[in-house]
Amino acid sequence: MIKNLTFILILCFLFSCKTEPSKAPLDKNEIIDSTITAFQKTLLEQQIDSVFKKYRFNGSIAVFKDSLQLYGKENGYSDFKKKTKIDSNTIFAIGSVSKQFTAVLVLLQMEQGKLNVTDKASQYLKEFKNKDYENITIHQLLNHTSGLNLLGGKLMFKSGSDFFYSNDGFNALGKIVETVTGKSYDENVRELFKKAGMAHSSTGDIFKGNHFASAYLGNAGIQQEVPNMPKRLGGKEIGTPAGGILSTIQDLHHWNNALYSGKILKPETLTLFMAKSAERHHAVFGKMGYAYGIMLNIGNPAAYFHSGYVKGSPSLNIYYPETKTSVIILSNIADEEKGKGMIFKPHIEVKKITDNLESTLIQLKEKK
Predict the structure, then answer these.
(1) 7 — pLDDT class (breaks 50, 70, 90)
(2) C-alpha 187: how far from its chain's center?
(3) Between β-strands 59-65 and 325-331, what pairing exists: parallel, antiparallel or unpaired?
(4) CA gap 58, 10 in Å, rounded
(5) Which residues pair with 92 in a beta bridge?
(6) Which DSSP category does 202 fall into?
(7) Closest among 321, 318, 307 to 361, alpha carbons compared
């Protein structure tokens, strides 16, 4: 808190100063912007470095403002047995961060007139052609209000009346994409990666490259490797459309920039993707809004984000639209005995740091 206040006071002083007359007039805004950036870098380095140290964080964290990297650090091992260190090329399983890719694939098909989010899923999938499921819409699958938990089981509530997070719902969306395109999910998502400039992303089903971070349960001292990674991500327990994508820090940065700048979806479709249409009470991150495969801060600062977890691989991807800032946290080890709250403690602390910084920057921008 003291660091934050110091940061605010110094910046406020800078804003109040008048540029002295000189032979070559200086661009005051340029000076202010460069000073703000310098303080952002210093603040992020101090506070996020302390998170690495406090939790002995094994993974990678980066903060980008548009194309400029404000912070980046890797620590620990992608392979504990071989002592292979994590670096900027390391590829991680991103868990449910994958859901936004599936949501965008659905919306791209809508733009081509192949479906509509108001359509019933039963129009495309035989599994939904029964009395309980026949009225579930694509919209309800996208924002987890369908009432579906496990495909084939009873609905948790009347479709559209509440929120219940369902991996099977997003795997059904992946099947709908396959049905209307006549191509596999993997083919569709690879085309999307190419469009977004994500040269090092894949799915667990088709991954054949190097630099993959094996997943572990335990801690830096004692750990056990999760078997059959990353192939297991495509199995029934998880499912590729719900949580089977592999990516890197840089690729997710490219994704955020391409998506939220309008390079992937048309403006009206992007607005639909981001629009809050449900509320979620997350066990770790608390109350939030939910759109299409993406979560939203309730209140300020505005942020679109999603956490991800498959065994041993906790992740978080955040985008702040006001400042075009991405915060990406990827890891490949989790001590499940301590519970999800502890597993995501570093992610929560980093989000608090960047939320506070974002709020401060917006306030200063308004005074500028």
Answers:
(1) low
(2) 21
(3) antiparallel
(4) 34
(5) 247
(6) E
(7) 321
pLDDT in tens, 321-334: 999 999 999 999 99
**287-301: string of b/e by CB count within 10 Å (b at 16+)?**
ebbbbbbbbbbeeeb
Q: CA-CA distance, 265 to 135, in Å (whole number)?
A: 27
307: pLDDT confidence band, cut at 50, 70 and 90? very high
Query: Which residue's structure tokens are 């299409």?
Result: 292
Q: What residue spans of 182-329 are helical by DSSP H? A: 185-196, 240-243, 249-260, 267-274
Please check whether residue 330 is in contact with residue 92, taking contact to mean a CB–CB distance below 8 angstroms. yes
d(CA 126, CA 342): 41
- Please state, in angstroms and rounded to a whole number, the distance separating the CA atoms of residues 96 and 294: 10
What value does the mean pLDDT of the chain take? 92
Q: Provide the pLDDT for residue 26.
A: 62
| pLDDT tens-digit readout, 57-107 | 999 999 999 999 999 999 999 999 999 999 999 999 999 999 999 999 999
Determine if the pTM surpasses 0.90.
Answer: yes
- Residue 301 DSSP one-character state: S
DSSP secondary structure letter of residue 263: S
Angle, helix 185-196 to helix 167-181, in steps of 10 degrees = 90
Cis peptide before 346 (omega within 30 of 0): no
Q: What is the C-alpha to C-alpha distance for residues 265 and 277, in angstroms, rounded to an integer?
A: 19
- Specify the 3-state DSSP secondary structure of 137: strand
